[in-house]
Amino acid sequence: MPGDRAVRADVPDPLYDRLTSYAGRPAATAGTGKDPVNAPMIRHWCEAMGDASAAYRGPDAVAPPTMLQAWTMGGLTGHPHGTGRSAAYDELLGLLDGAGYTSVVATDCEQVYLRPLRPGDLITFDAVIESVSRRKTTKLGTGYFVTTRMDVRADGEPAGTHRFRILRYRPAQQKPAKPEPPLRPRPVINRDNAGFWAGVAEHRLLIQRCTGCATLRFPWLPGCNACAGQEWDTVEAGGEGTVFSHVVMHHPSFPAFDPSGEGGPYAVALIELAEGVRIVGNVVGVPYDKVRVGLPVRLEFLRADPDLELPVFRASEGG
């Protein structure tokens, strides 16, 4: 999490000593997916994500790799008694609750894929409490990062791992004497999209291009949706585009996204670039109620705050 800092290691922290005793203990045991991997769920996922890859359709279909965790979820009713989340994990969370670290936010996840999942595969899983960080102070408050690793199997064969990290924290109580200007949320930068953000820093909007079939793709992904190729290069977007769709945010109020600083309403648009890919961004230069489907826009780069620059799209009132 940006802005976090560790409490000095030489400061006694009896709770940390107790929390770290749970490292290596199970977080979930004997978990079983409620349903086998199945075509309807794959179809719903692909429709929601706009992924039309032929690899996910037909008699030889596989599931999108990023669905790995979906097959392990217990839903609203949870997993059967004695399976799923372990007593050790509940004890760990109970210690944090008892010490006042009752708020939670997910911070990041990382997946590793070992084999494709196919309709009919029966999913089982176990998870381990991998680590608990020292107490850290973040902008949200002071707390501990808890990392778990889930090992997923398909018909008994290793299929992948899902590493998940949360922050259990005590919300900050004191407000700064002088209100700070509102900041936009920080983007999550990882090994898959670092090149995109490096381009933004140079005022270049880079689009991935598969070197196998030349298909352009955005957002950035580790593999090609069209041919499953793993090799790619980039092309720089020319900057021309049109509004493909948009929504107007009325609530909750979020001043950092509104040029007036009053919290909205403001428009969020899906921009179709001239190159054929689409990107979510803000439209500037016109009031929110003038944004419309088909509105021509051009790429600009907005310095949102000293530490954040973002691609935005400018339109004219009469565009």
Features:
mainly beta, eight-stranded antiparallel β-sheet, 12% helix
Report on the architecture of this protein:
There is one protein chain. The protein is mostly beta strands and 319 residues long. It has 4 helices and 16 strands. The chain has helices at 14-20, 39-49, 87-98, 194-201, and strands spanning 5-6, 26-32, 84-85, 103-113, 123-132, 136-137, 141-154, 157-171, 206-210, 216-217, 232-236, 240-249, 266-273, 278-284, 296-305, 308-314. Strands 1, 2, 3, 4, 5, 6, 7 and 8 form an 8-stranded antiparallel β-sheet that branches. Strands 12-13-14-16-15 form a 5-stranded mixed β-barrel. Strand 7 and strand 8 form a beta hairpin. The longest helix has 12 residues, at 87-98. The chain is globular. The mean pLDDT is 89.
